[in-house]
Amino acid sequence: MFRSTKRRTAGRKNFESSIISSSTPNAYLANVYNNSKLTFYTLPPVGEITLDEFETWAIDRIKILNEIESCAARNKSYKEIESIVAPMIQQTLPLNSTNVEKLNRERQKDYYSHFILRLCFSRSQELRTKFLKNETTLFKIRYNQLTNAEQQQFVKSLNLPWDFISLEEKEQLSTKLFNSISASLGYVLQLDDVQKRKYFEQEEFIKIPFEYVTDLLPQRSIFLQRGTAYVPKFQQLQLLVNEFSAKLEAALISTSHAFPSLDEDDRILPILTHLSSGYSLNYSQDSYGANENSSDINAITVGSKEIVDQFPLCGQHAMYGLRTLHHLKYTARQQFTLFLKGIGLSLEDALTFWSGEFKSVSIDKFNKEYKYNIRHSYGLEGGRINYKPWDCRTILSKPRPQKGEYHGCPYRDLSSDSLARKLREMGLEEKDVQQILEISDKGDYTNACSRVLEVKTNGHVQEQVTHPNLYFDRMRQYTKSQQTEA
């Protein structure tokens, strides 16, 4: 669908009329980063990249943003989010190479991926809000990874109207400055009176026009004199976050106005649509049934307690209905057949499994009424489409199950009592059961499933579940790792 060749930008709108030389982009990136590891992404990138780079760089960045959103959805604290996301940043979006050529490449990937996702997430208010929140958190995490010297260097590179005050000025205003931040030192940093004084003696202060800190004025946590605000360094990050967020929000709105001009580009637009339409980057649908976790899945083992225990609740619920009624209605058969296909059950084993479970149905009737639909799900009948297992969004879009039906999402469709009973049967403790019920009551069904996975793996898997087969894959990996260690 996409060409992997470079696209010439000569003569196109928003680009120079002459072809950009290979050295220009590196010089440009050195200028926008200004010897720092961070930037506010104020200017659009220049130069050329391939469509393959366009897509893979965006995917690498969106994985990080998805993880940030996943952690926030699971009520992780900022420190927990930072500990989870920091290694991902180091692996996929580092900016710390000492080799000039490699550093330029890292900067290029960081810069382009940010602007590519601006295009992806600028088309609606919901997408803009999501991108703004997660990018701001990413900026905050990266800033906290810098040393004090690197932080000051970055602040200076922004040319913002603030300066660190001298020791003499701090001494002259010491009483007023200390009184202004004393409450914050106790509340934010949890310091006692002795610790507050020691902290104040080491703290640096920024002098900045008061209009930049209007959100801090009601808190009475800064000293204000003649239109100038004196802000302690420990609140500097909030100022930078406010500035970054404001600039990015304005840029996203501006980008949304320019987006219709891309409608004629049949190469880039499908990629942007793909990335912003809920595409789950946590799980590759192309890997269904094709990895080491599916090697022992067959008609006999797929119904064993060992494997069923690794199903998400929707899979366990469907298996319960099948074992109870020895039959499932059409929507549940379709959902469960594709799920089993996704965990590695072959067509031959699927036919054996389903015919064995439909105990009240003769072989002739099974072959006439059910075999075709199973083969159809595997892409061997009808239009011969290789249907993919349903993700959580698809499952939640289907009609709610009626009495005697076992499709859908149990976190949405079961009563609180029934859901609690199912969770206890999965081995969850009462405190976890109650927490998951609360999450489900809020309508956060995928978050409830994610929390179950986290509890079942003793905190080893902390990932947003957006697909039943993702749950099974992660649960299977964890179970096998535990067996290996034992």
From TrEMBL:
Binds 1 [4Fe-4S] cluster. GO terms for cellular component: alpha DNA polymerase:primase complex. Residues 309-472 form the DNA primase large subunit C-terminal domain. Its cofactor is [4Fe-4S] cluster. GO terms for molecular function: 4 iron, 4 sulfur cluster binding; DNA binding; metal ion binding. [4Fe-4S] cluster binds at C314, C392, C409, C449. DNA primase is the polymerase that synthesizes small RNA primers for the Okazaki fragments made during discontinuous DNA replication. It holds the Pfam family DNA_primase_lrg_N. The keyword Transferase does not apply. The keyword tRNA processing does not apply. Coiled coil: none annotated. Belongs to the eukaryotic-type primase large subunit family. Keywords: 4Fe-4S, DNA replication, DNA-binding, Iron, Iron-sulfur, Metal-binding, Primosome. The lineage of its organism: Eukaryota, Fungi, Dikarya, Ascomycota, Saccharomycotina. GO terms for biological process: DNA replication initiation; DNA replication, synthesis of primer. This is DNA primase large subunit.
